[in-house]
Amino acid sequence: MMNKVKINGKTLELSNLDKIYWPKEKYTKGDLLEYYHLASKYILPYIKNRPHSLNRYPNGIKGMSFYQKDVKDKVPGWVETAEIYSESNDENIHYYVASDEASLLYMANLGCIEINPWFSTVKKINNPDYLAIDLDPLDIPFKKVIETAYAVKEVLDRAKAIGYCKTSGATGVHIYIPLNAKYDFEISREFAHVIAELTRSLVPAITSIERSPSKRKRKVYIDYLQNRTGQTLAAPYSVRPKPAAPVSTPLEWKELKLVDSPEEFTIKTIFKRLKKKGDLFKGVLGKGVDVEKCLSNLGA
């Protein structure tokens, strides 16, 4: 099945809209595309002008998936791309760059259930707009993730830095601190490392900054290493390839303690919330914190 639509003056050929992507719920690829169409005004500010790593699930959440970074000669001419040197590959890679709803839906039509933008835009590729602390639990209840998130907030309050939290849509919580592209990734990562260490000191029994899973069993991993060129996290309002089609959802800090599972917000339930709350993540793309002042406030 093929469906031609025109969006932002570009013609998209949407394929296999009846294909089941979520077997238990019977949600289809068409349902995914409809979600991103309706959510586009919320998600676009966080993906626009950014390179993307395409995580493709062409046969839904139970099928095989693969990552695609280089899209040279593989996308229509209207799709914006950015040629960026990759140290790990020792070559230039042509990354997909989102620019509007058409390019968002084109990604979804490729089977990209989740949307994974860089922390920086193509305009300032070495300067992230925010840093992120990724709280990733291993064999530990979600309530311990929430406890860790509030410990992060305690550190940020001491630093006089504002932070924004969202469910990962999978098992954890993401906390973003706005930087407004004022610093490079090295400074961003060093600041994130300080936050991670101080957080761990507040809740040492339930947290770890060890990368190796075998060394952090039954702990919440405080991942600050995401703050590097080319690293990605699921965007705010991104769907995740998990049962029930959960959405990575921004929260007010006072709400976080009321969340039973990071998967409780889905493509079928989130719009009622958005109508009531609006976009709680706007400040992430705001003026940004002063890292030097924050470190001074922390005595670091």
Notes on the protein architecture:
By secondary structure, the chain is α+β, with helices and mostly antiparallel strands. It folds into two domains: 2-117, DNA primase, PRIM domain, CATH 3.90.920; 130-297, DNA primase, PRIM domain (Alpha-Beta Complex). Helices cover 28% and strands 22% of the residues. The protein contains seven helices and 15 strands. The chain has helices at residues 29-47, 101-109, 142-159, 185-202, 253-256, 270-277, 291-297; strands at 2-7, 10-15, 20-22, 27-28, 51-52, 54-56, 66-68, 80-86, 91-97, 130-138, 164-167, 173-178, 207-208, 219-223, 250-251. The strands form five sheets. A six-stranded mixed sheet has the order 13-14-10-12-11-15. Strands 5-9-8 form a three-stranded antiparallel sheet, with no helix packed on it. A two-stranded antiparallel ribbon has the order 1-2. Helix 1 (29-47) crosses helix 2 and helix 3 (142-159) packs across helix 4 (185-202). The longest helix has 19 residues, at 29-47. The radius of gyration is 19 Å and the shape is globular. The chain starts with a strand and ends with a helix. The model has no long low-confidence stretch (mean pLDDT 95).
